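Re: weekly structure request thread

Next one in the queue (157 aa):
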Amino acid sequence: MSLLFDAIRHNKLDSIQQLVTANESLVNTVDERGSTPLLLASYYGHLEVVQFLLSFNPSVDAVDAMGNTALLGVSFKGYTEIASLLIAKGANVNHQNKAGATALIYAIRFNQPEMIKILMEQGADPSIADNEGNSAKTYALQQGIDLDEFRIISSGT
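Done, posted below.
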């Protein structure tokens, strides 16, 4: 199993393909931090690996030890193409990790406007508050981000 996670960390698609094709159940295994192959590949931004893993229908909302999903992992990094793939496979855009944060909260806090747009278009709820009582709306106000702009974009007007 550590061979698979090492291959993912180093973006070795050929090795990943060999390992997973030989044992498809590996797509839902976890490493010592509770990360699945999909979560780890998403976090590192390895698009081709993510595409390959998604073809085996892994759990897109599997969580690591901190309650993060693959979508939360890409939301603050701005990996919009991976986020779109995860959402298309059913990722929960309103999932909260152990800190209560959502993908939208992370996208706002790390100033990822394209990610904010995607999440808002897919129904992310800006009123969900984290464990500190701050919502995506609150963080947006603090950072001077007008979420209404994203609503206009997402509604197509």
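The CA atoms of residues 94 and 125 lie 6 Å apart. The radius of gyration is 16 Å.
Next request, please.
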